[in-house]
Amino acid sequence: AADISWKSVQIRLLHLDVVLHRAKIKASTGHQLGIERIILSNLLGFPLKRYDTTIQMEGIHFLKIPDNRANQPNKVSPFNFFKMNASLYLELFYDPVLNNLNIKKLKLIDNNWGQLRLKLVLNNFHPRQIWNLQFEPLLIQTVDLTYKDYALLKQLMVHNPEKKSELHYFMADATNRVIETAKQNNNQAQLKSLVGLQNFFKNPGQLI
After folding, report:
1. d(CA 126, CA 157)
2. How confident is residue 40, by pLDDT bands cut at 50, 70 and 90?
3. Structure letter (DSSP) for residue 70
4. Cα–Cα distances in Å, from 178 out to 25, 172, 204?
């Protein structure tokens, strides 16, 4: 589970949203995140039972990382995670009758590391289980992912050469198997995506 606290709360009736300032998230793993501002929209809309919302987070950064290599002089850290300063924009709709979560748009950007865009539909979504970090019952109905790497994977590969070769071999073997199946089924769209995935792991950059 995770605990969240904040320095102050602002209710904006004109915008029908709630703003949390200087939020802090503590995970059961010991990780701690700080978020300068969280904007929760549509929470004050009418009718009261409304399950679509927009969430914006600004200034997402790490406050604590258990066993972080940056704090261990004898270990090499590929980069300092504490330099992360990301923003997130999320539009979602939740159907409590069907237990269906539709992430219409998720955009996560860090100008130093990379950016991720995601559309996702999940079945068997139960908020209480997710809050307790129980993800096993979830079923992915559809997913659309775009990732552009600036430095994150590149630096991990450079500073962990032994892992780089292992990852390349594993991904090449797994992707080749799926490519053969796609060729047999004459699935051109899947073939195009898989070739892009192969190229991404050979030279991390943009994945669509």
Report:
1. 36
2. very high
3. G
4. 39, 10, 20
